Amino acid sequence: MEKIFTYESLRRFTQDVFTVIGCSAEHAALAANGLLRADLRGIDSHGIARLVGYVRLWEAKRANAKPQIQLVHETPSTGVVDGDGGLGLVVAPFAMNIAIQKAKQVGSGWIAVRNSNHFGIAAEHAMKALDEDMIGIVMTNASALVAPTFSIERLLGTNPICVAIPSGTEPPFVADLATTTAANGKLEILQRKNQQAPEGWIQDKDGHISTNPHELKAGGALLPLGGDRDHGSHKGYALGAIVDIFSGVLSGANYGPWVPPFPAYVPIPENMPGKGIGHFFGAMRIDAFRPAHEFKKDMDQWLKRFRNAKPAKEYDQVLVPGDPERLMEKKRFQNGISLMSAVVQDLDNLAEKFKISPLE
Amino acid sequence: MEKIFTYESLRRFTQDVFTVIGCSAEHAALAANGLLRADLRGIDSHGIARLVGYVRLWEAKRANAKPQIQLVHETPSTGVVDGDGGLGLVVAPFAMNIAIQKAKQVGSGWIAVRNSNHFGIAAEHAMKALDEDMIGIVMTNASALVAPTFSIERLLGTNPICVAIPSGTEPPFVADLATTTAANGKLEILQRKNQQAPEGWIQDKDGHISTNPHELKAGGALLPLGGDRDHGSHKGYALGAIVDIFSGVLSGANYGPWVPPFPAYVPIPENMPGKGIGHFFGAMRIDAFRPAHEFKKDMDQWLKRFRNAKPAKEYDQVLVPGDPERLMEKKRFQNGISLMSAVVQDLDNLAEKFKISPLE
Q1: Residue B283 Rama label (left phi>0; alpha psi -120 to 50; beta)
Q2: pTM tops 0.80, yes or no
């Protein structure tokens, strides 16, 4: 039960919703573009399906539609941005832009962000660096769903890392990965379809491996990349922890089990040590290391060598990080984006409530 | 068949060997300290057991004992170091020191290194940042043993990432991880003992999952963290690729399948596009983001919360990255370091060949 919409109609609708809740025209456009990038790139869990969630956060006064986003501390290559409780979709471009400006001036720029909210997909922000011949690096923490190795408590979010690297004639390298075996969105799909998960994705409330995706709602947890100790889960745990500390502790945001949740019906944690959720943005100018044309020549050779690697006979080809999303983005931009009927219903309800033109 | 030696006797012996092959007194001490750190921290595969390998590299004229290490390009926050073919154990401290000096001046420092060799364990270099109230970040590429997801060709090394983060009263966070499910050293142990590996560590020459550690010498490959696509190996592959590009492509070193191997009997690849192997070093001053005492208070709270997390009943406690290595370092510094008899024999042979005092 799916229905197909053009990118532009979904983008326009999303922009209208952000405008109605009080965003400036500029912020509404920025937030809509950012959110829709997830749908274009095939990360449906982070796109327009979450629009209702953003509205509920605003209704619960847990997201500020008119933030005064500020750079509150800086050195030539670093800084901290306070998002004033704004939408991460708006705060993130502000911070990434400062990182890029600093990289122009001193070679690299690194901005930790506090007092923000969910920012959509990390790749949307990291890829801003590509047009500037820079490497973009983006991380964010998120509310705790993941148990560290040996723990039965959830202490980390799915905490993604994105690194976007420019190239010459080859399509660029864009890795955007949750530091868990499987992203939460994949679990939600299994829950909806009542299907079992592979081993290594989740554990039950006692810390035992489980394949039942509903365990996550019964005290279970997502597992760090690796799954269990024998398969390197301590490494996935370490990576998620690094993201949490860079995003949360370095900025003065919340961290670990104190990161506020995205669903507005989930109470915020007690005794929060910081402000909102945290992000971390980096930009490195290529020619702060090597002449850009030399780097791009080598990067093209790297990309060609990996894309042309010999695949195992079960597979057509070896991919470079970002390839599936890039192909999906092109396809969906041309052919439209399909939404599940439950999502369409949510959006129709929003249209009625806010008296804006419905999706068509 | 093991024999125990004091840290100091192993360090002295190692320093003597590096002196005999022509290192300056300063470089020999630096290299010996760096190599022995691996033994202290329990990473036996990267310590004195490799000393003979370093000597063979020098004998094959693939390592330069008297390098003119140079900063060949820089901006206020970035730079490239050419290691002149020197031992990574000597090149790495040079580069990390520049990263730290740049961080003192402009908040952060980022140095890509080319024309280097293996540098021991990444933690040895990243932890230099801790005393400066900085976060240390270290990566290196290595010769190709790892197959990207879907590939039957080996195109990446085990490419480790280390991040060291300072704290207040709690012991610091030090994550040092190969971006593979299992480090090569663990495979070597299984090969020696003729034991099977868990699924997810290796594949055979056709790209099929294998548990036979000897497959690695028959055209098989190590697997990226995650093991297979269902368990997130595309993420481990992406992380290993990021390390390769930051270390190799950004610096002008070799990358991917062209990284020269550590064993001197393995021929160097044809048509190498760069110089030597590559590393990447970063330092970020804590107070370039927040007052250091505020950060440390939060970091201590983070560390306590994770160390005191409720473990599953099969486990005693939840660990923070770096805890096992820190405890091992303390223990081995006090009680000595045990070496397998094959390693002792190698070192005795070295002593005889170079006419230096044998281990005692």
Answers
A1: beta
A2: yes
